[in-house]
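W.,

You were right to be curious about this one. When I first looked at the sequence I had no strong expectations either way, so I just let the prediction run and decided to look at it fresh. Below is the sequence, 211 residues in total, followed by the output.
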Amino acid sequence: MNIFFLSMSPEEAAKWHADIHIVKMIVETAQLLCNVHHRAAEESSHCLPPYTRKDRIPYKDSRAGHRKLGSMIWVAESLGNYRWGVRLGLALCREYNRGRGRASGRSKQHKTQAVLEWLRDREPCFHRTRRLAVKAKHLAMPDKFKKAVSKGLSTVEAYRDYYYSKRRTMPMRWPKGRTPPWWEERCAGRKRKEAAFPDTVKPPVKRKRSA
């Protein structure tokens, strides 16, 4: 489970999600936010009573959003982070409702939108010291990308680099004319590097045909 922090603006970040992530990240974002409510009464929580009854929280406590998960820690860290997550989820729903990532014949409105609206209307009460604006330090990513942040790269740029690396394992596509400019810049930089150092380009791996 992750939150792709591709922009300080959650609405812009949602637009920059590839089609393949639109459906998946709506559900994961809602699960993370519901977990904030489930764990509000715990000693380590930053929330104050009264707490929402667990049987009224739309999603059950998800083990996938375990306590040491970077995105789970971040979304529960402050009211600003929680609100950012809600806005991201609802913005992803709007992208889905416009047809992105939606299979033909499916409902025009994502079912999880109602969960995110519930989360928007029922914010947990954070301690005064945690009623903060968005804390930009969100690093749920492999260590090699975290190291770049320690050397001065912004969290957003590190997340864009991390997101760009996903092109190796999945089809990263956007509607025509809506590819993020930072993605195109990275593609152009990669092509320039390949042109300048052709010997460093690894040929595609040929898969053996099964008998």
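Here's what jumped out at me. The two ends are 37 Å apart (CA to CA). And, maybe more interesting for your project: The helical segments are 10-15, 19-38, 70-75, 79-97, 113-121, 143-150, 155-165, 181-196.

Coffee later to discuss?

I.
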